[in-house]
Amino acid sequence: MVFVTGGTGLVGARLIFDLINKGEKVTALKRAGTPHNKFSSLISFYTNNTEAIEKRINWVEGELSDFENLIDIIPEGSKVYHCAAKISFNPKLSSHIIETNVEGTANLVNVCLLKNVVKLCHVSSIGALGGKINGRQINEETPWSPSGKSAYSLSKYYSELEVWRGMAEGLSAVIVNPSVILGAGNWSQGSSQLFSMISKGLKYYTLGTSSYVDVRDVTKAMIMLMDSDIEGERFLLASDTLSYKSLFTKIAESIQVKPPYKYATKFITGLAFRFEKIKSGILRREPKITRQTHTISHTCDNYAGTKIIDELNFSYTPIAETISFIGNCFVKSHKAK
């Protein structure tokens, strides 16, 4: 028996798809009121028979903040994949993001200990890793520093501490730290939103860099780690490092539109996030750019995802192939409308 949190998210949905195809019995947690079609729309990019997959999932409703409910719904002796997390770079939600993600992980870890789960796989983030030192690649051992970290990154770091605490108390667990995850999904959220933005004529790019990984590689790595004897370790998942200009250009090519062509300096993005702060306050909506995303867009980071290659003979999908696949999904989904 397998238990999955965050089953209607980009990673969780693909993970459930892989687990079902592997023959696992899956119980998946979703928040009350979340429509099932959110899951089916995500896996529709991988299969024409979403109904058959849906029928094999035992959906349960609840919140990670509800400790007693978790005791009732997590199967004794199961494998647990923790994919759920609140994501936002809105500074007004900082305290809420940290409290929610850390409390939820702490509750899950405690229930895993009580229910004698076989193993826990916790989905963390590169945000929970240290920053670049003297231009070197960032890896699993890079020393942590909270300086300049977003509330989301801090929440993932403190959530990891709860998992390490669980390990110290006897829990078998592994942690994955994906870089920026690319996958076909909700075109108005997360990294998938880039395809929508560029399709509408995004003009600006920055020269910052980051590392990327295919969502299918993330879930493949998670399952391989859970099926292995490895425990008590973390694994950074990163395929390729690209500049934002290069990423945007590849996305534009995949959907056959004009790529961004104007360089946005720090001054320009600095003005943009300040203007957006005022605008989002008036309209009472999430800001499209914040101080944090302004900073990230000019930061040149490079992550090493080689540990899992060395330990599990793992192979990554080249990001050019990933972008091409997502671009095709984007074009098909919009032609169908």
Describe this structure in words.
This protein is α/β, with parallel strands linked by helices. It has a domain at 2-186 and 212-239 and 303-319: Rossmann fold (3-Layer(aba) Sandwich). The chain is built from 13 helices and 12 strands. It has helices at residues 10-21, 37-43, 50-54, 67-73, 94-114, 151-168, 193-199, 215-227, 244-254, 266-283, 291-296, 307-312, 319-335, and strands at residues 2-5, 26-30, 57-61, 79-82, 119-123, 173-178, 180-182, 204-205, 209-214, 233-237, 240-243, 262-263. The strands form 3 sheets. It has a 7-stranded parallel beta sheet, sandwiched between helices. Strands 7-9-11 form a 3-stranded mixed beta sheet. Helix 5 (94-114) packs parallel to helix 6 (151-168) and helix 9 packs across helix 13. The protein is globular.
Question: What layout of secondary structure does this protein have?
Answer:
Layout (H helix, E strand, L loop, with lengths): L1 E4 L4 H12 L4 E5 L6 H7 L6 H5 L2 E5 L5 H7 L5 E4 L11 H21 L4 E5 L27 H18 L4 E6 L1 E3 L10 H7 L4 E2 L3 E6 H13 L5 E5 L2 E4 H11 L7 E2 L2 H18 L7 H6 L10 H6 L6 H17 L2
Parallel strand pairs: 1-2, 1-4, 2-3, 4-5, 5-6, 6-10, 7-9, 8-12
Antiparallel strand pairs: 9-11
Helix pairs in contact: 1-2, 1-8, 5-6, 9-13
